[in-house]
User: What shape does this take?
Amino acid sequence: MLWEEAKIAITKRWSRGKDGPTKTRKAEGHVPLHPVLACQLMEWHAQTPYAKAMDFIFPSLKAEGRVPLSPAVFDADHLRPAAPEGGRPNS
Assistant: This one.
């Protein structure tokens, strides 16, 4: 993350439980991040037990931060419970 610039640096990928290079050079680069989301992510990252610069933003606590939280767990534990608060029906 490039917090000061509100950008996400795409430098590698996570696939089959391992990180590695992106599939192509074109996949590398920067993605703009809305300042409000950047602020929220910075606050979240500071509160996690794995808050070093190179740690995952959403680490797996079960794996002691060595791997990212799986999308299915993130969805079940965080997104779906938050959906009713955001005005969306739970599916």
Summary: The chain has a mean pLDDT of 83. Residues 46 and 52 are 9 Å apart (CA to CA). The first strand starts at residue 7 and ends at 10. The chain has two domains: 1-47, 51-91.
